[in-house]
Design goal:
Radius of gyration: 24 Å
Helix content: 40-55%
Strand content: 5-15%
Distance between the termini: 38 Å
Bound molecules: zinc ion
Shape: elongated
Largest sheet: 3 strands, antiparallel
């Protein structure tokens, strides 16, 4: 898989209930990839586009695979009379032409739009011998968007410090000790001042583990999304971080285990 791409079919997310379910909505006629992603991962929807492979996982009418939007939005009058509104792109494009059928014949006054419709379809470049895929769009600066929030370019400082998702993990630990802190600009700056924080806190051995614990959790979640095409909701990511923190503390600072249990229990 290329960097910045995601394959459709392996997509799964863990719901807050812990029940694992497919991120892909399967309809009797196909797989509503775009719809599913939009509903579960709305923040990301505008940041990715579709690359047509074999067309099996793309919905002809509902996914944005050609032109400037889904065909159902570009040609709503035809979508409303489509016989198979959930037809896949693969099924819609036959060897000898388009297999698009409607519940009624088009009216004469719709002729211009019919021509426009098939002209749009005419710009289709054809199938490829690959799976359909999602493409992670680069930002205007040519950098790839953060896999966690999709709202900024991914770089070290954003991913590990300033990303809103990462920020929730920092806040988790800062709240734990009642510290109000404005985050430093870079991860290097953070490490420099983390241990110089409030004396009582920085003397606790477990405090030094926090940055590594957060960064390891974030890095795993980032790669989970980038390479396995899955993601955890932020609450699950926070739980992962807490479990990892407890595990590391227990391994390294067994003498503080009791106070740690109390502390984690208060989260
Ligand atoms: Zn981010």
């Amino acid at each position: 898989m290329l960097y910045g791409e995601m394959s459709f079919m392996t997509s799964t997310v863990k719901k807050p209930s812990g029940v694992q379910t497919s991120k892909v909505v399967v309809s009797p006629h196909g797989v509503g990839v775009w719809k599913a992603i939009r509903s579960l991962w709305s923040l990301m929807a505008g940041k990715i586009s579709l690359r047509v492979g074999n067309g099996r996982k793309i919905l002809f009418w509902c996914d944005k695979w050609l032109g400037h939007g889904p065909l159902k939005e570009l040609f709503p009058e035809f979508f409303s009379i489509a016989t198979t509104p959930n037809i896949s792109l693969e099924s819609a494009k036959g060897v000898h032409g388009w297999n698009i059928t409607f519940r009624r014949l088009q009216h004469d006054q719709e002729l211009e739009r019919v021509v426009e419709f098939f002209k749009t379809l005419g710009s289709f470049q054809g199938f490829k011998d690959t799976e359909d895929s999602l493409i992670w769009k680069p930002t205007s600066k040519g950098t790839y968007l953060c896999f966690l929030c999709g709202a900024a370019g991914e770089n070290n400082s954003h991913l590990f410090i300033h990303c809103p998702v990462t920020g929730q993990l920092w806040q988790l630990f800062l709240n734990m000790v009642g510290i109000r802190w404005s985050m430093p600009a870079t991860s290097v700056d953070l490490l420099k001042c983390w241990n110089q924080n409030d004396g009582a806190v920085s003397q606790k051995k477990w405090w030094k583990l926090v940055p590594a614990c957060i960064w390891w959790t974030i890095w795993k979640e980032r790669n989970y999304r980038a390479f396995e095409d899955k993601y955890n909701f932020v609450e699950k990511t926070k739980m992962n971080c807490i479990f990892l923190f407890y595990f590391w503390c227990k391994e390294s600072y067994a003498e503080e285990a009791e106070s740690l249990v109390d502390m984690i229990g208060s989260l």
